[in-house]
Amino acid sequence: MSGKIILVNGASSSGKSTLCRALQAALPELFWYLSIDHFRELGIVPWERVRSGEFDRQALRPALFEGFYRMLPALAEAGNNLLIEHILAPNDYPERLFEVLAPFEVFFVGVHCPLDELERRERERGDRPIGDARQDSAVTHTYGAYDIEVDSTQPVAENAATVITAWKARKVPTLLRPIHGSCRPPKGYPAGRFSHSKFPPTIQT
User: Fold this and answer.
1) Where are the beta strands (DSSP E) in the chain?
2) Contact call for residues 168 and 130 (beta carbons, < 8 A)
3) Strands 5-10 and 106-112
4) DSSP assignments along 20-34, one per residue
């Protein structure tokens, strides 16, 4: 039997990681917590060498996202429950994520945060380019209908309890379906921190 998937979406600095850690600690079933950021944080990708310019991050980006996205159905098909933290944004190839997750039960969680608070957190953390949060907040909640939404200015324990209660009461199957007319960058959307001049074609699995 395929594993269950909880997809947590929100802008940079919105509190997704904090919520995911709380969910993983409290969900009644075991979930793997996965984020593309873990590739950097755990040293899977030699990020300092990329940041230094030794390797071209724009050239690496399509294969990095494609590899991450392909990994998810393989883990779920093996029977693992997945708690996926992600930012749905035009430069992150969201149409590909929707494609690979389409066959699975996906519970879709939206994490909201007021823009002034997003920008305050962004300044304080110091590990994200200034402006990422504003860019993400303009589009990240336009891609699909959520099963549950939370405000990350509220206590994380309360938000985790809200998500878990809704997840337990979900109607199975919950299917991820995009409502955004196109996953390509909307007109005027800034290229952002990981811009890629050409939207890559879907790589067939």
Assistant:
1) 5-10, 32-35, 82-86, 106-112, 148-151
2) no
3) parallel
4) HHHHHHH-SS--EEE
